[in-house]
Specification:
339 residues; alpha+beta; six-stranded mixed β-sheet; 10 helices
């Protein structure tokens, strides 16, 4: 057993940050808490860490009721967005900090620090100071410092949020490889859908203090449980259910809105037995490996479609061109929660 959150709630004044959350995280897994600002994801992480105390409910760590335990008693490694390294200490001294506090032997500290420097691929930089490192290197040192005391749980709060896009992408892949080596139960908070999809074994989607859905990246994307999840995970067209685009395709919905992924918008050059509706190509955006087409239906509705480069070349699309579109797959939900 890794982490169990049992009916946990936390309120700050009149703001309900976390509202009766139940969650089980398997031992050794890498889980993302994903959601927009104010969804409760960081508060839930801090409750697990012991940095906040719940108003009600329990936190279990590896089978032990940790609700009343201090941060130190929980044996948790915590990594913040802004590194929080000690500027006056070298890389080696930063990594060794937790072991020094625990009065570990000098021989044990040296061995452990060398192991971690090799693990984070900074073996030759141990005597440098944080100011002499890049942002990505500093974040790796912060992770090594958290791992030095061999925590039973590793928690990361927006760990790559302060880094540029290229470094973030490199560190995502590195974190995944690191986890596969150390297998410590890891929970990280992010608002970046791509980051969660790329790194996590499981994603916990949060909204307004509640959990909307838990699942693998594929389950979350392909089978969203709610309109919020579908809207938040990846781009989506939201169209009225009475749109002509859904007539003649056998799609019926009692909900006022229908959700359609851009890759599920099929574009043809000619009409197809009444199953397509006419549209005009308003704008084409080249995204490298795919093309984004902004289409305007005859009733004025705007629809975004994503095409592979091969399909785009086959259609030979141009702005203002007349085309015909139909949905390949669409979803509707009982209620729609705006982000």
């Amino acid at each position: 057993m890794g982490i169990v959150v049992e009916n946990v709630s936390k309120k700050f004044g009149s703001f309900q940050a976390v509202d009766g959350v139940d969650l089980e995280i398997k031992s050794g897994s890498l889980v993302a808490l994903l959601g927009p600002s104010g969804s409760g994801k960081s508060t839930l992480l801090r409750l697990i860490a012991g940095l906040e105390m719940p108003d009600r409910g329990k936190i279990w760590l590896t089978g032990t009721d940790a609700t009343a335990q201090s941060v130190q008693e929980r044996n948790i490694g915590f990594v913040f967005q802004h590194y929080a390294l000690f500027k006056h200490l070298t890389v080696r001294q930063n990594i060794a900090f937790g072991l020094d506090i625990r009065k570990a032997s000098k021989a044990k500290i040296k061995t452990r620090v060398n192991e971690l420097l090799e693990l984070i691929q900074l073996m030759g930089l141990g005597d440098r100071y944080p100011s002499q490192l890049s942002g990505g290197q500093r974040q790796r040192v912060a992770l090594a410092r958290a791992l030095a005391v061999q925590p039973q749980v590793l928690l990361l709060d927006e760990p790559f949020g302060a880094l540029d896009a290229k470094v973030r992408k490199d560190l995502r892949a590195w974190l995944r490889r690191l986890h596969d080596e150390v297998h410590v139960t890891t929970v990280f908070v992010t608002h970046d859908q791509e980051e969660a999809m790329e790194v996590a074994d499981e994603i916990v989607v949060m909204n307004k203090g509640n959990i909307e859905q838990i699942g693998t990246p594929a389950q979350i994307y392909d089978h969203p449980a709610t309109a919020f999840v579908m809207s938040f995970i990846g781009p989506v067209n939201v169209l009225p259910s009475n749109s002509k685009m859904f007539q003649g395709n056998g799609f019926h919905s009692a909900s006022p809105e229908v959700f359609l992924r851009p890759q599920d918008v099929v574009i043809e050059k000619d009409p197809n037995n009444g199953s397509t509706v006419p549209a005009r190509v308003n704008r084409l955006i080249h995204l490298g490996w795919e093309i984004q087409a902004e289409l305007i239906l005859d009733d004025g509705q705007v629809v975004t479609a994503h095409l592979s480069r091969d399909r785009f070349d086959e259609l030979n699309l141009e702005p203002q061109q007349r085309v015909y579109v139909k949905p390949k797959d669409a979803k509707s939900f009982p209620l729609y929660y705006s982000i």
